[in-house]
C-alpha cells in the first residue's frame, strides 16, 4: 500500500514537472512583420497623390483641419484622409531590396504617394494573395490592397461632404419667400408666419443643415441657378448660396467655396422646407 502511494506521488510530481516545462518553454516566433514606416499620422502635414496622366492631389493640414489644396481648394473629408494615412502603419511579411522593379510594375507605378518626407510607389497585385507591391525606403513590400484603395480616389472623394463646417452653426435662413431667425433664447420665428411649424420642427430642420452630407462635392460647373438663399450663422457670419437643381437631386452651390454639393432629393426637401414633416400633400417647396 505504501509503495503504491509513493508511486502515485512520483507520477504526480512528474506530471507537474512536465507542465512547468511546457509553460516555461519559449514560444516559437511567429512570421516576421516589417513595418513600412516609422512615421505616425501626427507627423504628417502634407499628402500628395500622383497618378500617371492626371493632375496631382495635394492635401495640407491646417489648424482648422485638413484641406484639399489641389486640384481645387476645399475642406477635406477626414475619413478619406485617415484611410490614406493608414499606409504609415502598414506591415508586410515580405521585404526585399528594390531591384528588378519592372517585375512588380514599380518601374512605372500605378500611383505614387508622398506622406511628409516619405514616398510610396504602388505596383501590381500578387495574383495569389491579392496583396499590392509597394516600394519605399529602398525596399519592396507586399501589403493589403486596402492601402492602395485608400489613395486611389478621385479628387472629389477627398472633398468634405459636409455643407457646413464643424464650427458653423445655423442661426437664420433667407430665400425669396421665407425668412427664419433664431433668437438668443434659441427659439425660432418665421416670416411669413407658419403657426403649424413647431419649435421641434424648426430645431429638427436646423439639425438637417448641421448634418447635411452630400453624395458628392465638386467644383462649380457653371449650371445657371434657379434660386438663391442666404444662411446666417452664429457669430454673425453669412453664407450665400444658390439652388442649381431640385430634381432628380438637390444641388446647392456654396459661393464662398465655389463648390457644389449634391444631395438626394428627399434630403433637399427637408433642408428647404422646415415644415415638411407637417406638409400637406401636393404643397410645393419654397
For the structure shown, list the relevant keywords.
elongated, single chain, 286 residues, disordered C terminus, 2 domains, alpha+beta
Write up this protein.
- The radius of gyration is 30 Å and the shape is elongated.
- With 286 residues, the protein is an alpha+beta fold.
- The protein contains five helices and 19 strands.
- Helix content is 20%, strand content 33%.
- The protein folds into two domains: 34-158; 170-278, no CATH class.
- 23% of the residues are buried.
- It has helices spanning 2-24, 78-85, 146-151, 199-210, 265-272; strands spanning 34-35, 46-50, 57-62, 65-70, 74-75, 91-92, 95-97, 111-115, 118-125, 132-136, 139-143, 170-175, 178-182, 188-191, 216-219, 227-233, 238-245, 249-254, 259-264.
- Strand 18 and strand 19 form a beta hairpin.
- The protein has a nine-stranded antiparallel β-sheet. Strands 14-13-12-16-17-18-19-15 form an eight-stranded antiparallel β-sheet. The protein has a two-stranded antiparallel ribbon with strand order 1-6.
pLDDT < 50 runs, ≥5 residues? 6-23, 280-286
Number of helices, counting only DSSP H or I runs of 4 residues or more: 5
Helices and strands, in order, run as HEEEEEHEEEEEEHEEEHEEEEEH
* SS-based class: alpha+beta
| Integer tally of domains | 2
Topology, number of strands = 19
The largest β sheet comes out as:
9 strands, antiparallel
- Spatial strand order of the main sheet: 5-4-3-2-8-9-10-11-7
